[in-house]
Amino acid sequence: MSSGDLFHFRAFRDYLSLEAGHSDNTIAAYQRDLQRLAEFAASKGITEARGITTPMLRQFVFLLKDLGLSGATIRRNISAVRTWYSFMVAEGLVERDPSDRLETPKRWRTLPDVLSEDEMNRLLEALDKVRPYLKSHGGNVELISLENDVARLRLQGTCESCASSSVTLELAIRHAIEQACPDLVHFEVEGVAQDKSAASLISRRAVTDWTVVKTAHQLEEGAWMPVRIGDVRLIICKVNGTLYAYRNRCPACNMPLDTGSFEGGFLSCALNHRYDVVHAGRCAAIPSAHLDPLPLLVQENVVKVALTKEVVDAPPETVQQNI
Q1: pTM
Q2: Rounded Cα distance, 34 and 55, in Å
Q3: Are 302 and 311 spatial neighbours (Cβ–Cβ below 8 Å)?
Q4: How open is the CA angle 133-204-208, to the nearest 5 degrees?
Q5: Which helix (DSSP H) or strand (DSSP E) does residue 197 occupy?
Q6: Domain of 187?
Q7: Smallest Cα–Cα separation from 319: which of 202, 161, 193, 200?
Q8: Is 260:270 a contact under the CB 8 Å cutoff?
Q9: Which of 301, 316, 312, 290 is nearest to 87 (CA)?
Q10: Structural domain total, the chain
């Protein structure tokens, strides 16, 4: 098997041309960028895609800078690597995506006073992709300004009584933009419910771990699946073509939801506390109870959920009911 086959370049090229619909120039540029990565990996003794690690990708980005490549060229290399790994994960060619946290160091990046048409289109497309998820939780997002090195966004219509829910939406926006627009130096999101834990969570991106859920994209309409990631248990379900992720716990009785049922867009625990999946996991019978949402994004048929420090460390809490 040739080195290109071990890195799946031929299959990736076919995907870019036949499925993703990229232009010949873009495909040629991506192929050159990835061939450079393959040569760098070979110099480290790595001869196949699954052997590449996140630290190695960071070393590769530093090499591009040392070669004197422009910021735009470096950003294109990173975009090529991310698209390549999204394809391989979706096809089951590799098990993990080491490019998930790869970014260009800020000191290399500048944001022009006016974005190019391509950059603006990518930013707006990123917001369009995340809107269905935001709307499923009663929210939306708009671009309000772009000045110097900061894109300012406004989060709309979120549940003001639930800071964790609005922070969840902010994390989904952040991930979508970072994937589509690595050339942005910084962006801010207004409208996030304010509390100390929320502010801390937003400012420390290192506490967020986006994890691929391999079989979630295969869920049929009206189906659901329990998932365990480390010590965190969650439920993923599909309603009206949209996937939703919630912590696998009923806030009314603290029982796991997978001992109950999922029907008509409602998750129910074994004690029949019912939660509206589409409308932010609200419980009509107990207004103070709602499920804990997790950011979920679908990119190139790859489903990812975000595990935040807030979710991982949160102790079980039971809503007090008036009897």
Answers
A1: 0.49
A2: 17
A3: no
A4: 45
A5: helix 196-203
A6: 117-207
A7: 161
A8: yes
A9: 301
A10: 3
The series of mean pLDDT values per 10 residues for the chain, 323 residues long, is 69 84 82 91 90 88 82 82 89 85 52 53 74 72 65 64 58 73 65 41 44 89 91 90 89 92 93 88 84 80 75 51 46
Question: What is the model's pLDDT at position 153?
Answer: 77
Q: Where are the beta strands (DSSP E) in 138-295?
A: 140-147, 150-156, 186-190, 209-212, 224-229, 232-239, 242-247, 261-263, 266-268, 274-276
Last residue of a domain, one of 63, 80, 107: 107
Q: Verify that 163 and 259 share a domain, yes or no.
A: no
Type and span of the H or E element at 297: strand 296-299
Residue ending a domain, choose from 49, 81, 107: 107
Element (H, E) at 304: strand 302-307
Confidence at residue 182, expressed as pLDDT on a 0 to 100 scale: 65
> Phi and psi for 147 in degrees, rounded to 5?
-130, 130
Distances (CA, A) of 171 to 69, 78, 124, 167, 178: 31, 21, 17, 6, 11
Reported residue count of the chain is: 323
What is the per-residue pLDDT for 264?
Answer: 92
Read off the pLDDT of residues 231-244 as tens digits, 9 standing for 90 and up.
Answer: 889 999 999 888 88
**pLDDT one-digit tens code per residue, 240-258:** 888 888 999 999 999 999 9
Structure tokens at 107: 């000191």
The pLDDT score that the predictor gives to residue 308 is 60
The CA radius of gyration of the chain, in Å to the nearest whole number, is 21
Question: Residue for token digits 């939780």?
Answer: 137
